[in-house]
Amino acid sequence: MKKGIKYIFASAFLMVHFLSFGQREDAGNYEYDREVLFGINKNTNGGLIGGFSMKIGMRIDDTNFQFFGLELSHVKNTKEARYPTPLGNSFIFGKSNYLYSIRPHYGREIILFRKAPQQGVQISALAAVGPSIGIIAPYYVEYPISRTETVREQYNPEVHQSRFNILGPGRLFEGIGESELAIGANAKAALSFEFGIFKSSVTGVELGYQLEGFTKEIPLMPTTDNRQIFQSVYFTFFYGFRK
Known about the structure:
Elements: H1 2-22, E1 34-43, E2 51-59, E3 64-75, E4 82-84, E5 90-92, E6 97-113, E7 122-138, E8 140-144, E9 150-154, E10 168-169, E11 180-195, E12 201-214, E13 229-242
């Protein structure tokens, strides 16, 4: 086991050394005109993975950039809680709908601190606004109607009054064809921390605050207070390319 770990570390060291040697002309040169970044999001309104994002940025001058972005996120009610079932799975009792948010946006970014050659962290501040398209999809649950028969349907608090009578959630994407749309807008402000020593690639994290509102209340859980305005703190890990 110890030999295997040593081998992994040695291989990783040689790979990093090889890449550094092969791209040494690129090291320490952080000037770029365009970038394409991809990210995985974690936020206070989402699950383990809150969503995914893409960002296309273009230089305006030495420290200012503009960018277009697209985010796909799953928005949850803060009171959602999972309960296990005798079948070994779990479900969210009281949940009636999913909310998937599609967020195209336009923003500006300013570099606050540049990286020193081949070391350090570049810190930027950014802000963006754009429309939101909410997909309200029904949340299905399965429950027995006899000893040998079960049905799957959207959770209804008047029908499914006890969580002990529910066998689990519906199938993946079941009922997606019955979805409704909600139109809204979103805005965010964040700090971006970038690492790496090459101009051609970038890795980093974005920490920020997101505000999103829709023209109508979203009934995620009919037995609790539902909202049409959502706010969250988020963390996005991103990786991308520049030239």
